[in-house]
Design goal:
By secondary structure, the chain is mainly β. Helices cover 8% and strands 19% of the residues.
Length: 103
């Protein structure tokens, strides 16, 4: 569950995230929103985010993406981030997360 208390959203910018539901929700000022669409409508954040299994190679230890990951080619562009955590060059349609899928 993502939980925001009073005043903690000031200046916050959240987008291009992959949320993998685990029964929780998004909580703002004591109100819980279930599902990404409800969160986006209430908070105004994450309009480019997805709610799905990111399909990591091995969750908990290897956060590289599998070929069928919904995070492929859905990351933000124009941020000036030219390489991923492994120094792999990001292409014109970058992936969400720390690692660019390389096949």
């Amino acid at each position: 569950m993502i939980n925001f208390q009073t005043g903690t959203q000031v200046g916050l910018s959240m987008d291009y995230n992959c949320f993998y539901p685990s029964g929780g929700g998004f909580r703002i000022l004591g109100i819980t929103y279930y599902g990404l669409a409800a969160w986006v409508a209430a908070a105004g954040h994450d309009s480019h985010s997805v709610e799905a299994d990111p399909k990591f190679v091995t969750a908990g230890s290897n956060y590289h993406l599998q070929p069928d990951s919904p995070c492929k080619n859905t990351g933000p562009t124009g941020l000036g981030v030219s390489a991923d955590y492994d120094s792999v060059v990001r292409d014109a349609s970058p992936d969400m997360g720390a690692f660019e899928y390389t096949g």
